[in-house]
Structure formats: C-alpha cells, structure tokens
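Input chain follows. Return structure tokens only.
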Amino acid sequence: MKKTGIFYGSTTGTTEILAKQIATLLDVADADIYDVANAEVASVNAYEVLILGSPTWGLGELQDDWYSFLDKLKKVNLNGKTVALFGCGDSSSYDTTFCDAIGIIYEELQNSGCTFCGDVDTEGYIFSDSKAVVNDRFVGLALDEINESDRTEERLNHWIQQLKQNCLQ
C-alpha cells in the first residue's frame, strides 16, 4: 500500500472520529493522522496518498481550520500525489449545500498537480444540490451522521474497498 496520510478538520469531533475509522480500516498509523488545526503543510510531502476530510458548516462553508491549511496546501506542488476526499454534511437542514466542503477542497486543488480518487455515486443520497458533485458523482465520500448514520458503515466500507483497489496500490 502507498504511504498514506490523513488530514482532517473537525469542530464537534465527528470528522475526527471518521478520520480515525478510515485510518483503522486502511491500517494507517496514528502518527499519520493530522488535525489541520495544528498540522504543518510540509507534512504532506511524506505521503503518496492524501486523504482529506472536512465537515460542511453553515451555508456550504469549510470547517474553520481548513481555510488557513488549504491556502498553504494550494501552494504545494502535489504532482504525483493521489488525493481522496471525505466529508460530513446535513442533507436535511442544508440540502442545497450538502457536503460542499469537499467540493471546495476539490476545486481549490484542481491545479495542484494531484490526481483525485474515490468519487462516489450520488444514488441513495437525498439532497438538492452540492458543490461536491461533479458529473453526477460526489468527488469523495459524503456522509451524513445526523440523518443517515445508519448508512455510514456501508458507505465507508464500500469507499475503503474502492480506495484499496484504485488508489492505494
């Protein structure tokens, strides 16, 4: 498996819990999991694969800690790196901005030289609109721990298998 680092932002702890679940499922060591609130952007240089996670706040905003980290990350040459995204959103209360945060990260890193991996079919999700949807697919794993937590395990396991087959070898 390629050397993988997980970088997440979390305010309430949900995205942190999911980052650690992803790490466990992929056998990623604790030392390779970073909270972007206190991570150095240079840490990404140690990895071939970056798994980036953010919840969506308010009306389609990034989690606060991501703004500064993403500004620095956009300046890094990510040529040759694979990026997989995951995020949390509320598909009921914020159905027009569901998981926009991963769409924002995707848009901001488009010209960084990285290759994105781990897109997810929108089938089975109930929402109206999202910046995270490109060509009728989520750019990464979209999770709703508020309204659809009963679907998280299935969605997470399917995504992990996809990453193992297509991104981490």
